[in-house]
Specification:
Elements (H helix, E strand, L loop, with lengths): L8 H53 L7 E5 L12 E7 L20 E8 L4 H5 L19 E8 L19 H5 L19 E11 L1 E6 L7 E9 L1 H7 L13 E9 L4
Antiparallel strand pairs: 1-2, 2-3, 3-4, 4-5, 6-7, 7-8
Length: 267
């Protein structure tokens, strides 16, 4: 009689042990790949937001004129009571309707509008991000806790309308008090409702997912400049280990800063 072919108990146990080791190795590889993907995706998104912020602000301010840039505190829109970074604005001689740079008869800029940049926390924040950010007010009075702030750009013809060809109607630089009325929240990620604000000739959402935007007067000799520090968070990684929205995000392993200088000048 022939012996039946089969698997011994020892062989079965060895096979199960090998399968278990392979499963553990595969699970670890998947975890590592997921970790790398989260870090890479989060950092890429953060850097993209920061580059958009730099490109937009430097583009407008470089088309301003010497001594025509101003800085003020941003709005307070979170329970922390901290300001959403700084607001930066400048005079612009670019007609938003045509995109052309306007000059007076003597060749100097004929200023048409104020261009304002500031950070805002979108209304309906909870519905948008699935969480509520109470924020974190730092020692300087700024909110460093919410990483969902958006950068708003507004083109404002403040006060009496600027009229083409009428140099007496030229736009003047807004004061911090004037600007305060324009530091409003968008409805979600839509800025449509802001178009109805007095004197607003254009409004856009320039960047998203920012923590803060800080600005100080620059030190370049012979020109007016602003030194800016924008920050964003690698959210996918950070939210696994931090109480995102309620802790200080100024300097964490997941925070990216972009420091740049915008210099006023004529084209």
């Amino acid at each position: 009689m022939r012996r039946r072919a089969g698997v011994s108990l020892v062989e079965a146990m060895l096979a199960m042990a090998l399968f278990g080791l392979l499963s553990l190795a595969l699970a670890q590889a998947v975890r590592e790949a997921s970790k790398i993907w989260r870090r890479s995706t989060g950092e890429t998104t953060a850097r993209l937001s920061l580059r958009q912020t730099q490109r937009k602000i430097t583009s407008d301010l470089s088309a301003g004129s010497v001594a025509q840039i101003a800085i003020g505190g941003g709005p307070v829109q979170l329970a922390s009571g901290g300001r959403n970074g700084d607001a930066v604005w400048c005079l612009s001689a670019v007609d938003p309707a045509t995109g052309n740079f306007q000059r007076k008869l003597n060749g100097s800029p004929f200023f048409q509008n104020n261009v304002l940049y500031y950070l805002a926390v979108p209304a309906q924040h909870g519905q948008l991000y699935g969480m509520t950010c109470p924020g974190f007010r730092d020692a300087n009075g700024y909110d460093q806790g919410c990483p969902h702030k958006v950068l708003i750009r507004k083109v404002i013809d403040f006060g009496a309308a600027t009229v083409a060809g009428d140099e007496s109607s030229e736009e003047t630089l807004m004061t911090a008090s004037d600007v305060a009325a324009y530091l409003t929240q968008p409805a979600g990620l839509s800025v449509t409702s802001m178009q109805s604000e007095a004197g607003v000739r254009g409004v856009s959402l320039s960047a998203t997912s920012l923590i803060s935007l800080r600005a100080v007067k620059g030190t370049l000799t012979g020109a007016q400049s602003v030194d800016l520090d924008a920050s964003a968070l690698s959210l996918l990684d950070a939210q696994r280990t931090l109480r995102v929205g309620a802790v200080d995000l100024t300097d964490t392993d997941f925070t990216t800063h972009l420091k740049f200088t915008a210099t006023a000048g004529l084209p």
